[in-house]
């Protein structure tokens, strides 16, 4: 095995991470962990194109639940389906990814002395009884519900990170990501922003799940990537909430999408799924203080950037006014 300097290992389920921010002088291993095989490479082919063939880039297709031996300095452990429809599709594999996958990556970090960043989630707070959520809140999670493969999986992943840190001195970083959206998302991802934008562009009704008053706080992907890189390269282990505190009900989100993208579409109320959190908003005081980070892109600007990309991929150009 050859020794390389400044190597970064990025682990993702599919190629949706904003690689544009990665320094091209670093050696990058981009490791893709595939759960739903036909989902592979949807979304960001174009983003990846400029990296394929780059002398300092290597793409490895690997399942993170199997051990991996590479020489790296930093590990961004993003591997896991994040869309509820995908993580609930194969819950056993989802929890294996969070438990065995995280153990494998911590084992790798220990072996090569790498720093490891885990992307945990706002879902560790469950259906929160405190609002907004600070990192000190322990959460309200159903341990046997249909979402628990993800929620509890990420909670165990956080525990493993801290146990390896305390017992073996591994350098860890934990980000708690709040709902993230942006260009190059899988069109069929199933999460609310991509659903609404694709529906509006296709002229279909926007499917608001009941009651519609539940809230989320949406963070634009470029802001998220900046936050993750600041966390990785800073001194604080976390956990740190990385998200945009702008909070919207799903009905408000639908109204914004309708107004910005297609005022002619209707909004239809559909059935929700069990344990859907009723409210979610990050308290980002810690990220501001410790990382000097806060998001810059407001929802309405981010939605327009996402619309352009979705229109191109769906081949539905914007109507020009006569
Ligand atoms: O987007 C994310 O980053 C987050 O996505 C999911 O969390 P969730 O908030 O349930 O994501 P969505 O499936 O986008 O649902 C958000 C809200 O929109 C509603 N929704 C969803 C889809 C839809 O077509 N219509 C609709 O109203 C859902 O009922 C829910 O209340 C993951 O579980 C999180 O870990 C992840 O961080």
Automatic annotation (TrEMBL):
Its EC number is 4.1.1.35. It is an enzyme of class 4 (lyase). The keyword Cell cycle does not apply. GO terms for cellular component: cytoplasm. It is found in: Cytoplasm. GO terms for biological process: D-xylose metabolic process. GO terms for molecular function: NAD+ binding; UDP-glucuronate decarboxylase activity. Its cofactor is NAD(+). SUPFAM superfamilies: NAD(P)-binding Rossmann-fold domains. Pathway: Nucleotide-sugar biosynthesis; UDP-alpha-D-xylose biosynthesis; UDP-alpha-D-xylose from UDP-alpha-D-glucuronate: step 1/1. It catalyses: UDP-alpha-D-glucuronate + H(+) = UDP-alpha-D-xylose + CO2. Residues 37-303 form the NAD(P)-binding domain. CDD domains: UGD_SDR_e (cd05230). Gene3D superfamilies: NAD(P)-binding Rossmann-like Domain. Keywords: Cytoplasm, Decarboxylase, Lyase, NAD. It comes from the Eukaryota. Its main location: cytoplasm. Belongs to the NAD(P)-dependent epimerase/dehydratase family. UDP-glucuronic acid decarboxylase subfamily. Catalyzes the NAD-dependent decarboxylation of UDP-glucuronic acid to UDP-xylose. Necessary for the biosynthesis of the core tetrasaccharide in glycosaminoglycan biosynthesis. This is UDP-glucuronate decarboxylase.
